[in-house]
């Protein structure tokens, strides 16, 4: 039986020593073998000089744990696009549930090629949203209920979140980036089905928001530790809050809260802080309704990691350089465009 495979969590750093020599060679073979179909599975190792003097390797006979460790480095999309279809043994390895505990479908060129922030595809995409949704469903099925982390960009829909929620009772972290196809209904249905959620991140998801949504999330996920929200905001268009951020006060176990680009006010923030007494990290960049005065700083004195907008001065109202009051920053990991 293959040993368990550790899937890196979202934001984990790669090992400092990188790939081992054997892993690097195998990774190259995994990426290229199904393209070099005319040469068969007995292609000689790469970079050995005179290949004619080196015995051929049968890559189909590699142990499952070795294959699985390399597949982890490839990522979900590469596996589903062909690396797991080279031969029967590779397909068997690609179906190991441990391999699918963490599914990251955000960092890949085929996702970036779907469309830009204006909904226009710069090139003819090789894979459309429907295909990516189908691939995500396969990944969920292969996890056999063990999915813990799901990260995706642009292609996600309410229907896909429903599929994930119905089959992922162990889900702990969800990251959605620029997902215009996800609504409040789809998001709230997901969190209602996944009470073990500890980490949520929404980056440029315009159809998700509102006090009711955040309050429902807090009630459904009592173990929620991190909620990171990033909206598009401009200093000249700061408007009324509408009170939506008051919903975060229902997330009593939060340790990390990021409200980048929100219209939160000082009074609303005070209510959130009252409801989140365990808060250790707070990011308010691009929150142009916030006045970073002495009273606010005193209120946030117990927070270890704090990012505030600058105190706005009448003489220099357009100079919005961010004031970072901590040595580390919050990494959203989303689109920069």
From TrEMBL:
Chain intervals for the UniProt region annotation (Disordered): 1-21
Signal peptide: none
Domain of life per record: Eukaryota
Pfam families: F-box-like, LRR_At5g56370
Ranges where the F-box/LRR-repeat protein 15/At3g58940/PEG3-like LRR domain occurs: 219-290
Biological source species: Panicum virgatum
Protein name, entry field: F-box domain-containing protein
All residue ranges annotated as the F-box domain in the record: 59-104
